[in-house]
Design brief:
Low-confidence stretches: none
CATH topology: Alpha-Beta Plaits
Bound molecules: iron/sulfur cluster
Helix content: 10-25%
Number of helices: 3
Strand order of the largest sheet: 6-8-7
Distance between the termini: 21 Å
Largest sheet: 3 strands, antiparallel
CATH architecture: 2-Layer Sandwich
């Protein structure tokens, strides 16, 4: 099994610093791969990354919510051009470096979201996307 980073990721990067097997990598280019991604073949399911994420974006693969109920105000990010993702985001990562995302969407309180599309997207990053070449 592996852990999965969902579309709640806003590239804080804190998870990378605690992963004992260094299997979390930032997507590039951000316009196509806006999240950080976990290599499913290397992740040892230790769970250390979960409490590091300020956006509660990381789940064990088999616990990614099919019906996540929004508190209100959190954001989903998506590849540029995704329908409905029209809000740019400007924030900071855990080291204080600027983070800019062109395509996010702010959730309303009580909105229910299926976060499971992140699981095949994470796998695709490592099978077809830049994650393949990044990890060789
Ligand atoms: S800590 Fe959370 S927001 Fe930051 S890169 Fe990791 S999953 Fe994304
Ligand atoms: S669960 Fe552990 S091994 Fe897997 S990505 Fe998170 S910190 Fe790394």
């Amino acid at each position: 099994m592996t852990h999965t980073i969902t579309s709640l990721c806003l590239r804080d990067g804190g998870c990378v610093t605690v992963c004992p097997v260094e299997c979390i990598v930032p997507g590039q280019p951000i316009s196509e791969w806006p999240w950080f991604y976990i290599d499913p073949d290397t992740c040892i399911d230790c769970g250390a990354c979960v409490p590091e994420c300020p956006f509660e974006a990381i789940y064990p693969e088999d616990e990614v919510p099919t019906a996540y109920t929004a508190k209100g105000g959190e954001r989903l990010s998506a590849p540029v051009g995704t329908e409905g993702f029209t809000e740019p985001y400007d924030g900071q990562d855990h080291e204080g470096n600027p983070v800019h995302l062109d395509a996010t969407r702010i959730l309303q309180a009580g909105e229910v979201i299926d976060l499971t599309p992140a699981t095949p997207e994470n796998a695709r990053f490592f099978s077809e996307g830049p994650g393949y070449s990044a990890l060789g």
